[in-house]
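Extended Data, panel c. Modelled sequence:
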Amino acid sequence: LHGTAAFQGAIAILLFATFLLIRRRYGLAITFLTPLIILLISASEPDPWTALGERVIYTLTGGALALAAARFFWPHWESERLPERLARAIRSGRDYVSAVLDAWVRSGPPDPGLGALRRVAEIDVGNADAAFQRMLAEPGRTRRQIPRGFTLVVYLQRLCRHTTELATHLGAVTPPADLAALSGLIASALDDAAAAVGEERPAGPRPAFDVPLAAVRSALATFPI
């Protein structure tokens, strides 16, 4: 490929994909980074297949050493870190949904900081999801709370998506009177959920969402779609 348009195109695509994903999906970003490095290194080698073979050998050797060290010398299972990552994702989701609901209550222009909160929430949920997937690949004796972890990851993803959808309608309708009370209940419930997950204890009783939620639903039902 050297000296051809295909080489330049491959470099551009792989570089773009790597930087696009490096902060969101690290494992997938490395999948694009590896062939990028191979192409760049082989450009200065007389035999690109030799550089490719050396890269494969180095990667396999380093991976084997890392797995052996992690398994026998410094075992640190993902299940031990998953509660902390889930708790962080819950708190990020709380910050995001609280900011969106507060913007609704103020009836002002959208807060420019909402975009940053959305990115933090999405990154933390992505990290929690990746940690959960890594836990599934660990030995069976170290895995724990798989159904609960899966449920939390799914609902955290839904929370981010629905909050983003809600943010797109800011200023479209007059905020219902009970929205501030509902926002406070949601924030306190997510706070308790984050603390319960981080401390690995049962969560407290569910707050009484029904009354303010019914009022908000009734008020929004009067607006045409």
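Helices lie at 5-21, 26-42, 48-73, 78-106, 114-136, 146-167, 179-199, 210-220. This feature is highlighted in the accompanying rendering.
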